[in-house]
User: Which sequence fits this backbone?
């Protein structure tokens, strides 16, 4: 409980010390990674197409707000709803495949979404949807105020993470845990495991959509970058780097990767190389990720 | 102890069908290789029935077919007279036909209590409730403890399954299976790799749980098979070689050649 209070205090004070836009970007990717980890870490499914939910929800929210003039909460809701529906379709097509085939099917479907976004008029192709008005949340809270926006984004992030935490520590989460540990045994106890995996997939896709929709508010932009397969890869990296054994681990990974991208952007192509090196280091040396290794270290100290 | 292990629903007295399981012409082909070939197996309600045979005889495949983990290439499976050939494995389990696995099947990083609770929680109807706290499962702890005690592992209630000895993992598996109160248990080599003491414990346990239930088990330990089972079916190269009680089967020259011969070699 102590450390939750500490993190909350830090998060509330942060925009007075650090550039808020950067913080909000990291929070959006943090939520994205937490949602992704509900599948990878807690269901045992590697999706390689999560950018489709993140990026397409961003387009839907952007379009709804700019072209239809809806309020931000409705725009976000539209983005999440579409992401959930896409998650259902992706899930129905992919869930029966195992291991690498599951990843391939999600990647293939995400590529189809990408090419659709490249062609469809409403996304404005290479330009993306630009200058999306932020509007007023519930018609009252002016999101053009950087601090108001920050606390709204922080609240969305907290709600999203809480939903994942709740799901992991719920009767549903217990069944997911059982499926991850020994699927045939879960089946032999009478669980139709595919339905549980599908439910987890839809939940994960919806929250990935929530993250993408929120990012649209922050940057007033929805573009092809967010639906690109590169973004799908990045969320895998963030999750592994932070550690997939805990709910909050992926947030640490998201902050590290976002920091590298933001502050080392001047060195151009090197960013990709640094990411590659980090990936190799995590996979070979720090399997548990930043948070996982830290917790293991504390545990070792405690036992001594 | 026996009250915890006894079936909650009681013996199904209303059913006139004598055979709880009947297979007809059951066949499984893997790319031209017949793992199970035209098997007509009958298991009488309320008995302990053993399925034996040399390695690769098709015993596990039979289990996989009956519990629907594999689709048969040919043939039918009747459970209480009802055709379950096209059912899915989860439905078969819900109908009361619950299996164990050849390699011990626990949820390794869940505690003993949590393992058993996974089996108990489905009837609560909250398995999809991702918005509900898992504290709501605590109502099951009492029953889970009872089951753990019934198989003699109550003192390990809070221990992760991965840290249990092999024999206790097997005991946990049986407790988890019993949590479903199945009508019939299929046990695939419940005593493989166990020492004398564990074997006696598990044999006693099987005898207990078989009261009012049907057990079909695969087992290589012939002393155990002789001791426990009412009927034995000998399988070799996917086909039934002999059937009957231990006395009859062990005297069959074909069996001696195909099975006993290798077992005593
Ligand atoms: N999925 C599969 N694909 C191909 N062949 C298989 C498959 N499963 C089993 N077999 C083959 O079918 C035969 C029967 O296997 P099964 O596992 O049923 O034997 P078993 O009687 O249980 O043997 P054991 O005593 O060693 O457990 C074996 O020759 C095995 O190699
Ligand atoms: Mg076998």
Assistant:
């Amino acid at each position: 409980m102590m450390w939750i209070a500490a993190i909350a205090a830090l998060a509330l004070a942060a925009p007075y010390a650090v550039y808020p836009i950067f913080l909000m970007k990291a929070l959006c990717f943090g939520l994205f990674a937490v949602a992704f980890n509900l599948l990878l870490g807690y269901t045992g499914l590697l999706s390689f197409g999560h950018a489709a939910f993140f990026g397409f929800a961003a387009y839907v929210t952007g379009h709804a707000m700019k072209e239809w003039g809806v309020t931000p909460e409705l725009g976000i809701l539209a983005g999440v709803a579409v992401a959930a529906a896409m998650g259902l379709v992706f899930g129905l097509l992919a869930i029966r495949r195992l291991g690498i085939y599951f990843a391939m099917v999600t990647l293939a479907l995400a590529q189809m979404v990408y090419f659709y976004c490249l062609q469809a008029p409403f996304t404005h192709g290479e330009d993306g949807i630009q200058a999306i008005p932020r509007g007023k949340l519930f018609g009252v809270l002016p999101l053009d105020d950087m601090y108001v926006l920050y606390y709204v984004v922080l609240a969305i992030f907290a709600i999203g993470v809480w939903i994942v935490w709740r799901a992991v520590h719920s009767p549903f989460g217990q069944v997911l845990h059982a499926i991850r540990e020994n699927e045939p045994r879960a089946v032999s106890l009478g669980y139709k495991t595919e339905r549980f995996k599908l439910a987890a997939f839809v939940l994960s896709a919806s929250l990935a959509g929530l993250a993408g929709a929120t990012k649209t508010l922050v940057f007033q932009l929805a573009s092809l970058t967010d639906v690109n397969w590169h973004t799908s890869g990045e969320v895998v990296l963030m999750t592994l780097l932070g550690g997939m054994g805990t709910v909050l681990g992926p947030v640490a990974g998201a902050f590290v990767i976002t920091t590298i991208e933001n502050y080392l952007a001047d060195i151009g192509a090197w960013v990709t190389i640094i990411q590659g090196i980090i990936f190799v280091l995590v996979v070979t040396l720090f399997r548990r990720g930043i948070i996982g290794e830290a917790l293991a270290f504390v545990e070792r100290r405690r036992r001594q | 102890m026996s009250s915890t292990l006894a079936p909650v629903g009681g013996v199904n007295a209303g059913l006139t069908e004598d055979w709880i399981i009947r297979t007809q012409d059951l066949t499984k082909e893997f790319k031209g290789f017949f793992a199970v070939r035209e098997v007509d197996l009958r298991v009488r309600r309320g008995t302990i029935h053993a399925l034996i045979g040399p390695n690769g005889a098709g015993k596990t495949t039979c289990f996989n077919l009956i519990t629907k983990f594999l689709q048969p290439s040919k043939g039918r499976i009747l459970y209480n007279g009802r055709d379950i050939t096209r059912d899915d494995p989860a439905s078969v389990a819900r109908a009361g036909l619950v299996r164990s696995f050849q390699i011990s099947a626990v949820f390794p990083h869940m505690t003993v209590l949590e393992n058993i609770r996974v089996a108990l929680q489905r009837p609560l109807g909250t398995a999809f409730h991702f918005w509900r706290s898992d504290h709501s499962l605590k109502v099951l702890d009492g029953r889970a403890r009872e089951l753990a005690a019934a198989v003699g592992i109550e003192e390990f209630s809070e221990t992760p399954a991965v840290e249990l000895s092999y024999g206790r993992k097997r005991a946990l598996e049986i407790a988890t299976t019993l949590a479903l109160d199945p009508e019939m248990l299929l046990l695939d080599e419940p005593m493989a790799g166990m020492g004398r003491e564990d074997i006696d414990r598990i044999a006693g346990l099987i005898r207990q749980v078989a009261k009012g239930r049907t057990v079909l088990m695969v087992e290589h330990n012939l002393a155990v098979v002789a001791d426990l089972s009412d009927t034995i079916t000998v399988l070799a190269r996917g086909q039934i070689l002999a059937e009957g009680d231990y006395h009859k089967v062990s005297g069959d020259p074909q069996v001696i050649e195909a099975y006993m011969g290798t077992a005593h070699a």
In short: The first strand of chain B starts at residue 19 and ends at 30.
